[in-house]
Amino acid sequence: MPIISIYVLNNVETAEILGVSFTSNGTAAAHVQKKTSAARKAAFGLAPKGFLYPGLSTGTKTFLYNTVVQPTLLYGMECISLSAANLKALNSLQGEVMKRVCGFNSRSHHSKLLAALGISKCERQVETRTFKLYTSIFQTLSPAKQFNSILLSQYILSGKRIHGTLLDRVWTFNMSPVKVAFLGKGRPPMPATAENGVVDSLKYLIHSKDFIDINSTDHMLATFLLRSF
Asked: What is the DSSP code (8-state) at residue 164?
């Protein structure tokens, strides 16, 4: 049990700092599990307000998701290194919630539904948060800036990146650490959204006034599209 001055530091497997769970094995599984559980509770906690189907209009539900549920789900994700499995778990929770919100069962696919709702994939949201965090660190004199400046200097001189660091995650997202740090630029452009007949059809159907009736033609057509594509 290490002792620093008068403080005793206990050896633990998991530590929570400002709401972010860090583990001794360096994985993000514990934090992802905690946040997916919290997001699920936040979503179903809005049920009395009409968040679940049929409830409120689709546009209002999407607004509630983007302002209440998604921030809960993605809290602190820019501070840890996420694996492909972690991102899959986040996207699955996002799809699970919105299918329930729109009155679709588990056999329906969610990727086209999220696109029709205008909800970005979690990796894109995490990329945006990572960009903002790295930019803000270099705008304020702090120990965080000093530490990241050392890592950035190593990267500039030798191309060295330490796995799991914020600089490494910025680079992994195909961003230039130098441009992000000093210019607030360097993000790759958003990929052009190709026209998609399924997404466009779903967008029309889920925002129609008859969609809240599960026996309506609009809801049945949307269900057919999501089970087929």
From this structure: T
Would you say the C-alpha torsion 186, 187, 193, 194 has a positive or negative sign? positive
Tokens (6 digits) for 21: 């769970």
pTM of this prediction?
0.88
Contact 76, 35 (CB under 8 A): yes
> Which residues, at least 6 apart from 44, have a Cβ–Cβ distance to it below 8 Å?
51, 52
Q: Cβ neighbours of residue 73 under 8 Å, at least 6 residues apart? A: 35, 36, 38, 39, 90, 93, 94, 122
| 127-150 per-position pLDDT tens digit | 999 999 999 999 999 999 999 999
C-alpha of 227 from chain center: 25
Helical ranges in the chain per DSSP H:
29-45, 58-64, 70-74, 84-101, 111-117, 122-137, 143-158, 166-172, 177-183, 197-206, 217-228
Q: Which secondary-structure segment (H or E) carries 20? A: strand 20-23
